[in-house]
C-alpha cells in the first residue's frame, strides 16, 4: 500500500504556480537606458537604486515599456522610500500614457537582498503579482546581466509562512523607433567623434541599401541551394515562403504610386516639424525681448 510522504503537504504548498513557469517578462531598451541613467545620477552614499516598472500584463506576458526611479534609503532592518514621490510620478505618467500601469519594480545589482522582500510587499499592494527585475550595472562578467523574479509564497499551512523569489524568463523587445535609436547607438559605439543623427531621407536611403544587401544575400542562398552548393534548410524555406506570400500583389506602377505617396507624407511631416520648431524659437526670442 502506497504511503504519503511526510513532506507531501509542504511540497504541494511551495510548488511554483503555472504562472511562474510560463511567465515571460519583455523589457524595452528605453527601460534599461533609464535604469543606467538613474544609477549614474545616484547619490554618493547610495549603493543601489530602485524604481517602479510600468507597462502591461496579460496572458502570461509582462511587457515593461517605461520606468522611473524612486529615492530610498536602506538601513539594517528597514527601508525608507519616498512613496509620495513615486505615486506623483506614476500619476504624471498616467496622464501621458493611460495604458501603462504598475507591473513591478527594479533594482540595480546582481542579487536579491534581504530588503527586497520589504519592497516587494509594497508593490504587491499596488499591483497583482508584481515582477522584480535586477540590472547588474557593475558589469560583472563584462556584460550587464538582467534577471526577473516573481514572489512565490511558501511555508507550512497554518504555521510559519514566507516568500521566495523565483526566476522567470526575460526577453528584450523593441518598437520600430527604438530599433532606429539602437542602430544609431551601435554606430557611435566605436566612433572617436560624436555622430549626429542622420536626416529622415538619409535614413530612408540607408534602410533601402540595407534591404538591398539582405535581398542579395537571400538570392545568393537560394541560387546556392538550387545549384546544390549549399544544403537546404526547411525552416529557411518556410520563412521565405511566408515572406513571399506576405508581399501584396501589385504592378510596378502601383508600387511607385504608393511609394511616392508615402514619401510625400514623410516630407510633409518633416516640413511641419521644422515650422513648429521655428515658431517655438521665435516665441522664445519674442518673450525674452518683452521681458527686457
From TrEMBL:
Residues covered by the MPN domain: 25-155
InterPro entries, sorted: eIF3f, EIF3F/CSN6-like_C, JAMM/MPN+_dom, MPN
This protein's GO CC annotations: eukaryotic 43S preinitiation complex; eukaryotic 48S preinitiation complex; eukaryotic translation initiation factor 3 complex, eIF3m
Record keywords: Cytoplasm, Initiation factor, Protein biosynthesis
Main location: cytoplasm
UniProt GO BP: formation of cytoplasmic translation initiation complex
Compartments, record wording: Cytoplasm
GO-annotated molecular function: deubiquitinase activity; metallopeptidase activity; translation initiation factor activity; translation initiation factor binding
Database matches in PANTHER family: EUKARYOTIC TRANSLATION INITIATION FACTOR 3 SUBUNIT F, EUKARYOTIC TRANSLATION INITIATION FACTOR 3 SUBUNIT F-RELATED
Protein family membership: Belongs to the eIF-3 subunit F family.
Assembly and interaction partners: Component of the eukaryotic translation initiation factor 3 (eIF-3) complex.
Function: Component of the eukaryotic translation initiation factor 3 (eIF-3) complex, which is involved in protein synthesis of a specialized repertoire of mRNAs and, together with other initiation factors, stimulates binding of mRNA and methionyl-tRNAi to the 40S ribosome. The eIF-3 complex specifically targets and initiates translation of a subset of mRNAs involved in cell proliferation.
Stated name of the protein: Eukaryotic translation initiation factor 3 subunit F
Organism: Ladona fulva (Scarce chaser dragonfly)
